[in-house]
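Notebook B, p. 112. Complex prediction, attempt 2.
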Amino acid sequence: MTTSEMELKALMVASLGGDAASYRSLLDRLSSRLRAYYKGKLARFGRGATEAEDLVQEVLLAIHLKRHTYDTGEPFTPWLHTIARYKLIDYLRRIRTAASVPLDEDSEVLAQDDNAGAESSHDIRKLLGRLPEKVRCSIECVKLEGRSVAEAAERCGISESGVKINIHRGLRSLSAFIAREAKNENG
Amino acid sequence: MKTDDLVAMLSANVEPVDRGLVGRTISIAVTAGAVIALGLMLAALGVRADLATTHAVIFLSLKVVFALLVVGVAVRYLTRLARPGARQGISPFTIALPFAAIALLGAISLGGAPSSHWNKMILGDEWLECLLSIPIIAIVPFAVTIFAVRRAAPTNLVRAGAVAGLIAGGVSAMAYALHCTDDSLPFVAVWYGATIVLCTLAGAALGPRLLRW
C-alpha cells in the first residue's frame, strides 16, 4: 500500500466522522491530483485547463454528495478512481466526443499533483442565484459564511433538519447545473 | 469559480456521515417493494384456493425459497455495485446458483417422469399468466429499488440496472407464488426463471437512463 493511499484513507475516515479540517485537507489533495489526471486525459481530446477544472469541480461535488458510499473496509484509491473515471466518461459523452477512454490503473488518479489552481467556467454566485430562496439561504449561511446549522435555521426561517436537507438538495442542484453547463457550452 | 473556494465551501461545517446508509436504503427499498408486490398480487389475483393442503405448502415453499435465494444474493451484489470500486462482497457468479439449482431439480424431475408428461409438466395450466404477471408485478419493486440505488453511486449502470431488475423479478415471483397453482419443478425452472431473466434484461436496458448521476 502506498503512502498516499494510507494518508488519503486516514483523511477520508476522519472526514466521514465529521472532521472538517481533515476533509478540507483531503479535498485539497484530491483537487491537485484530479487536476493532473484530467489535464492529462483531456489533452488527448483537445480540451484545456478550464475544462479540466470544470471536471475537477464536478468530481469534488460528486465526492461530497456520494461520500457515504465509501466503505471504510475498502481501500480508498479504487473508490476515487472509479468516480473520477466515471465522470470523465460521462463528460466525454456529454460533449459528444465519440472516443473511448483507455483502461487505466487505480493508481493513475494519484500519479501526479498539479497545483496550478485554474478557475472553472462556473460562477458559483450565479448558480446559487438559480436555487430556491430557502435552499440558497441555507447554503450561504452554513457553507459560505460558516454559521452553525442552528443559526442558519433561525435566519432562513426553517427547522435545523430543514437546513441540512436544503444544503444537500442545493449541492445536488449545483452539481446538476454544472453538468448541464458543460453540455451546453460544448454540445 | 476557484476550486479552493469550492473546497472551502464543501468542507465548511461538514456533518458526520451515516456509513450504513447504502446497505440500509437498498434493504428497506426491497422490503417495501416486496410488500407492494404482495399487496398487488392479493388485490389482482388472490391467494391459491388450496393453500391449506400439504401439497400446496410444499410447492409454495419451494417457489418462495427459490425466489428468496435469488433476491438475497442479488441484494448483496447490488450493495456492492452501488459503491464505486468496491471489491469485497459476493461475485456475480453467485447470482446464477439459484437458477442452476432449480434447473437441475427440474431436469431431474423430468428425467424421472415418462416423456408423455413432459409437455404438461413444463407448460402447466397457466404459463401465460405467469409470464405476464411476474414482470407486471415487478414494475413497482423495480422503481423503488432504482430509487434506492440512485441515492448511492453506481458506476456500471447496465449491470446495476440488471441486478435491480433481477431483484424486482425475484420479489414479484415470490408474491406470484402465492397465487400460482402450477406445481411442477420444470414449470418453476422455465417460467419463474425466464420471467426473472426477462426482468433482468429490462433492467439492464433501462439502467443507463435511470441511474446516471
